[in-house]
Design goal:
about 30% strand, 8-stranded antiparallel beta sheet, globular, single chain, alpha+beta, 5 helices, 8 strands
Length: about 200
């Protein structure tokens, strides 16, 4: 039987922090727009800021759908599944905001991710999620899966790039400055980091 929670604390916070992967879901307002669902991982790239707020690093990649949707309408859902231990699916429905590299809060927020390791310039935004609804469900249909280790290719690839090379990489991608549906996504040229 699913439960609702008032805040992210105790067992809920521990559950979130113990999971090696989570998923984000966003959508544009347009009925025909593309719904986006993204897996997120990498140790240290998600933090619980307080009992109602989480944040995660948005890294370089092929698209910027989440950032575009959050800027347009703020709607975002984060989901975690227990792939080991007792079955559970946890969702945080919330209001998201994208904090870009030139935002006054960037330097303060990026310090919360010191455990994420160094990947040069590839952190292009921080997505902050203000929880509106926190709930779980049984997870009885989620399979048992064994976590082996982190993949290192992404961090290694971007750690070799300078800030200028990463900015050039972003400008070459058609779906970085705008979403698949033409919504504004990352600011281009990519701002330099303020930390």
């Amino acid at each position: 039987m699913g439960k609702h929670y008032e805040r992210i604390d105790g067992r809920i916070r521990t559950f979130i922090e113990d999971q090696p992967v989570f998923f984000t879901a966003t959508a544009p307002l347009a009925a025909g727009g593309h719904v986006n669902l993204s897996p997120k991982g990498r140790a240290g790239t998600l933090v619980v800021l307080d009992e109602m707020t989480l944040a995660y690093l948005d890294f370089g990649g092929s698209t910027a759908e989440t950032v575009a949707h959050v800027q347009e309408n703020g709607r975002i859902t984060l989901m975690w599944c227990a792939f080991n231990g007792p079955p559970k699916v946890l969702r945080v429905h919330g209001e998201g905001e994208a904090v870009f590299r030139d935002h006054p809060r960037w330097a303060e927020l990026i310090m919360r991710f010191k455990d994420a390791g160094v990947d040069g310039p590839s952190a292009r935004a921080i997505v902050v999620v203000h929880a509106r609804r926190i709930s779980d469900s049984c997870g009885f249909a989620v399979p048992f899966m064994e976590y082996q280790e982190e993949r290192t290719q992404h961090a290694e690839y971007f750690a070799r790039k300078t800030d200028e090379e990463f900015a050039a990489y972003c400008e070459k991608k058609d779906t970085i400055g705008v979403s698949l549906d033409g919504l504004p996504a990352l600011p281009l040229p990519l701002p330099m980091r303020t930390d």
